[in-house]
Amino acid sequence: MFKLSEIKELIKLVDQTSVHELEIENEGTRLLIRKPGRTEVVNVQAAPITHTYSPAPVQNQPVHPAAGAAPQPAAETAQARPVADDLHQIVSPMVGTFYSSPSPDSPAFIKVGDRVNEKSVVCILEAMKLMNELEAEVRGEIVEILVSNGQLVEYGQPLFLVKPE
User: Fold this and answer.
1) CA gap 13, 20 in Å, rounded
2) Where in the chain is the domain with CATH 2.40.50.100?
3) pLDDT in tens, 4-35
4) In Å, how far are 6, 35, 85, 90 from 69, measured between CA atoms?
5) What distance in Å separates the CA atoms of residue 52 and residue 118, rounded to the nearest whole number?
6) What value does the mean pLDDT take over residues 35-42?
7) 133 CB-near residues (< 8 Å, 6+ apart)
8) CATH number assigned to the domain covering 59-165
């Protein structure tokens, strides 16, 4: 199995070279990295789990999509459009999987229109099998949720837009 740090380093190396595709197999695990093209995303595959890495502004795809959830087109992601000056972005402090609720059967922590304060939990980010609660760190109203439940998110990726009070 490949470590996340190894995968990230390989992605950086491929990104900095003229190599368009890199495939490595190790102990039954296959890693395939492709440079994004017009509609491609970089796929990282490890049997039986599939992870998808996609740098902005390439289309993001959920890792474990919720029932009925579909990938968002790049035009709908925060990286693909400017953010109003009066809105605050809550960004991901780490690479991980975004979860909008504490469990699949529970309601979402927040929804558009909800008011939050600095200590309001807005989501869970799973990284290396650890569940990390993310707090809003700002007082205001949630204007938009920019990612889907189960989606892999990158460090610094905008997750929510908040209209500060």
Assistant:
1) 11
2) 59-165
3) 887 887 787 777 777 777 777 777 777 878 77
4) 30, 25, 30, 22
5) 31
6) 51
7) 121, 123, 124
8) 2.40.50.100
Query: Which residue in 153, 150, 41 sits closest to 89, CA to CA?
Result: 153
DSSP-based three-state secondary structure for 138: coil
Distance separating alpha carbons of residues 107 and 82, to the nearest angstrom: 30
Q: Given the structure tokens 């008011």, which residue do they identify?
A: 115
- Rounded to 5 degrees, φ, ψ at 121 are -80, 125
Question: What's the token pair of residue 106?
Answer: 């529970």
pTM across the whole model: 0.51
Using alpha carbons, select from 153, 148, 90, 89 the residue that is nearest to residue 125. 153
